Amino acid sequence: MAERSEEVKLLGMWASPFSRRVEIALTLKGLPYEFSEQDIANKSPLLLQSNPVHKMIPVLLHNGKPISESLVILEYIDDTWQHNQILPQDPYDKAIARFWARFVDEQIYVTAMKVVGKVGEERDAAVEATRDLLKLMEKELVGKDFLGGESLGFVDIVATLVAFWLMRTEEVVGVKVVPVEMFPEIHRWVKNLLDVDVIKKCIPPEDEHLNYIRARMDSLKLKSV
Amino acid sequence: MVTGDVKLIGSWASVFVMRARIALNLKSIRYEFLQETYGTKSELLLKSNPVHKKIPVLIHDDKPVCESNIIVQYIDEAWSSYGPSILPSQPYDRAIARFWAAYVDDKWFIALRSILTAGGEEEKKAAIAEVEERTDHLEKAFIECSNGKPFFNGDHIGYLDIALGSFLGWWKVVELDANHILLDETKTPSLFKWAERFCNDPDVKPLMPETAKLAEFARKLFPKPQA
């Protein structure tokens, strides 16, 4: 009997950390998918129909059924395709992984956005605050190759936001938010990530990404003049 | 059946603590409730949740679990063979439940709370309008998720019922404070009826605080500026 073909489609955006983390998960699971680049300034009918509540990417469409919110999507992927598990199996370890994923998105990300979005004293304060949060992540990495332990896991995938977005903005913003002297474990972890084929394949290409960040920051500055 | 040593650090007035307690009740888990005193944080709380220093914290055999929705999922998974399932069984239904639970916390609750913290009449009106709009979304979510059954989760209360239902005490308090109905029988009839059923559920009823007591506590938490 022929297998019903699994249709997996991702509505995403090439420079978005939330979109890329879904691509990492799908690639880790070896799942073929169709990627549909979305124009956030001009949202497609499919996006609006698939995520009417938030109207945001990423949205995963599995056999036409939409799932929104990147952390929800990651758990859905792990629940549905149970090989190469992303989340730990043990309930306690799973709870810890969920805790740290939330911490990255609700604490680190929100605070780090202010580094990019503010100037002067407000920016300095944001840098300090971001560093305080990163110190907790630094502690978690002691004695581990990845946040997930010996191999890449849920929290690593979510925290690529730190490795390849926050740390890349340093060049553009001109502030070393995550200096290696203060965060040797995080720097070691980023090197470990870059050794993983799936990561290399799924993160935005550096030059293009830096240009994109620069352009966005310029447009933000223009808006505030 | 050995459940291990279970403690919960919390407070009678907290929505988020209630979530954990409902889940423990659903699984018939006996636990020691460690009530925090308002205005202070115990040594145990600070040690168990050093990152956020917030309640609830579940401590199972000395291992702490933080964040209410994470605790509820942990309870469901650690004691999966006890009592009913809290999360739906199908991955897609689980995703929908998680999506709406995140919506409740990230969007709906923020709007509800901003009614209490509103600076003036204009701000309050705007906050009320936002809550009404978001409650409307939840009405649609209920119809979609319940599929004709009494609860978001189907025949018995589950993750999303707990996530939203735990707010019902505060929902009433904010209504009184705003002098405006926020759970309208005619505008959101399904939610209205669901709310009654939820509050009457035997695992919920003993935990729902009295409106008057909660309103008094709210006045302490959200004092009105002096005229």
UniProtKB/TrEMBL annotation, chain A:
**Protein name as annotated:** glutathione transferase
Q: Which InterPro entries match?
A: Glutathione-S-Trfase_C-like (IPR010987), Glutathione-S-Trfase_C_sf (IPR036282), Glutathione_S-Trfase (IPR040079), Glutathione_S-Trfase_N (IPR004045), GST_C (IPR004046), GST_C_Tau (IPR045074), Omega/Tau-like (IPR045073), Thioredoxin-like_sf (IPR036249)
Family note: Belongs to the GST superfamily. Tau family.
UniProt GO molecular function: glutathione transferase activity
Entries under PANTHER family matching the protein: GLUTATHIONE S-TRANSFERASE U7, GLUTATHIONE S-TRANSFERASE, GST, SUPERFAMILY, GST DOMAIN CONTAINING
EC code(s) of this entry:
2.5.1.18
Enzyme class, UniProt record, top EC level: transferase
Q: Decide whether keyword Transferase is in the record.
A: yes
Q: Which residues form the GST C-terminal domain?
A: 90-219
Under SUPFAM superfamilies, the record lists: GST C-terminal domain-like, Thioredoxin-like
Record organism = Brassica oleracea var. oleracea
UniProtKB/TrEMBL annotation, chain B:
EC main group: transferase
What are the entry keywords?
Answer: Cytoplasm, Detoxification, Transferase
Keyword Cytoplasm in annotation: yes
Gene Ontology MF annotations = glutathione transferase activity
Localisation per UniProt entry: Cytoplasm, Cytosol
Q: Point out the coiled-coil segments of this chain.
A: none
A UniProt-annotated Pfam family? GST_C
Biological process annotations from GO: glutathione metabolic process; toxin catabolic process
Q: Which domain of life is it from?
A: Eukaryota
Residue ranges constituting the GST N-terminal domain according to the UniProt record: 4-83
- Domain GST C-terminal, which positions? 90-221
Q: What is its EC number?
A: 2.5.1.18
GO CC annotation: cytosol
Its main localization is: cytoplasm
Query: Which reaction(s) does its UniProt entry say it catalyses?
Result: RX + glutathione = an S-substituted glutathione + a halide anion + H(+)
- Describe the family membership recorded for this protein in Swiss-Prot or TrEMBL: Belongs to the GST superfamily. Tau family.
Instruction: Note the PANTHER family from the entry.
Output: GLUTATHIONE S-TRANSFERASE U18, GLUTATHIONE S-TRANSFERASE, GST, SUPERFAMILY, GST DOMAIN CONTAINING
The name this protein carries in UniProt is glutathione transferase
* Organism encoding this protein: Brassica carinata (Ethiopian mustard)
